[in-house]
Specification:
Blueprint (H helix, E strand, L loop, with lengths): L1 E8 L4 E3 L11 H12 L3 E5 H7 L11 H4 L4 E5 L16 E5 L10 E4 L10 H10 L4 E6 L1 H9 L5 E6 L9 E2 L15 E9 L2 E8 L2
Parallel strand pairs: 1-7, 1-8, 3-4, 3-7, 4-5, 5-6
Antiparallel strand pairs: 2-9, 8-11, 10-11
Length: 211
C-alpha cells in the first residue's frame, strides 16, 4: 500500500492556533488541490481528535470537476475510545471507524475492532491489514499531528503533500506533526523534494521518502 501524508500548515508548520482554530489556513486553490488528492486515493484517514476539532466530511467536493467528485474515497477514523459523535458529519455509511473497544453504533458508520498497540490505540499493522483486506491500495493521512507522527516514525509514509500558507501561528500553535522523539539528526526521516508550486498565496510542496 502506498501511503501519503497530506498537511496544510502555516509557514512555521502549525495546523491550528493554540485554541485549535484551523479552518481555513490555506486558500481556495490549495483546498481544491486537496480535494483532487482525495479523489486520487482509495481511502483517507484521520484520528478522532481531528473529528472532534474540525467535524470534517473528508469527501471530494469539486462541483466544477464532476468526474473527480464521483471518486469518493473510503473515510477512516482511528478512534480507540469511540468518541466520534453519532451526529458527526463523517458518521455516514462510507466511513469505517477503527477502535480497540467492542464496537457500538455511531451514526451510519461501520465500526470495527482491531488489535491495539502498547497504548491501546489501534496498532498500525492491524489498521493496514484491515484496509488491505478491503481493497485499499492507496491511503492518504489527513490528520492530526499525533497520527502523522505515528506513521512517519514507523517509516510508513511514502510521500508528503505539504500545503504551506504565508502566515505565522507561533510556538503555541498546534504542530503539523507531533513529537518524533529523535535523539540525533541522523535518525530523522528523510524525504526528497519533488516539486514546489504556487497555488494562490500558498505553496504546494511535494516530497518522496528517500530509499
Amino acid at each position: 500500500m502506498r501511503i501519503t501524508w497530506k498537511v496544510a500548515t502555516s509557514l512555521d508548520g502549525r495546523i491550528g492556533t493554540s485554541t485549535g482554530e484551523s479552518q481555513w489556513i490555506t486558500g481556495p486553490e490549495a483546498r481544491a488541490q486537496g480535494h483532487r488528492l482525495r479523489a486520487a486515493h482509495d481511502a483517507v484517514l484521520v484520528g478522532v481528535e481531528t473529528v472532534l476539532a474540525d467535524d470534517p466530511r473528508l469527501t471530494v467536493r469539486l462541483a466544477a470537476e464532476p468526474e473527480l467528485e464521483a471518486k469518493q474515497p473510503l473515510r477512516v477514523v482511528l478512534d480507540s475510545r469511540l468518541r466520534t459523535p453519532s451526529f458527526a458529519r463523517i458518521a455516514t455509511a462510507s466511513t469505517l471507524i477503527l477502535t480497540t473497544r467492542d464496537p457500538m453504533p455511531i451514526g451510519e458508520a461501520e465500526v470495527a475492532r482491531v488489535a491495539g498497540d502498547g497504548n491501546n490505540r489501534p496498532a498500525l499493522e492491524a489498521v493496514l491489514e484491515t484496509l488491505v483486506s478491503r481493497g485499499v491500495k492507496s491511503l492518504m493521512i489527513e490528520g492530526g499531528g499525533r497520527v502523522a507522527a505515528c506513521f512517519v516514525s514507523a517509516g510508513l509514509v511514502d510521500a508528503i503533500e505539504w500545503f504551506r500558507a504565508p502566515i505565522l501561528l507561533g510556538g503555541d500553535g498546534r504542530p503539523g506533526v507531533a513529537a518524533l522523539n529523535l535523539a540525533r539528526l541522523a535518525h530523522a526521516p528523510q524525504y526528497r523534494r519533488l516539486a514546489v508550486e504556487a497555488l494562490g498565496d500558498d505553496l504546494w510542496e511535494r516530497y518522496e521518502r528517500r530509499s
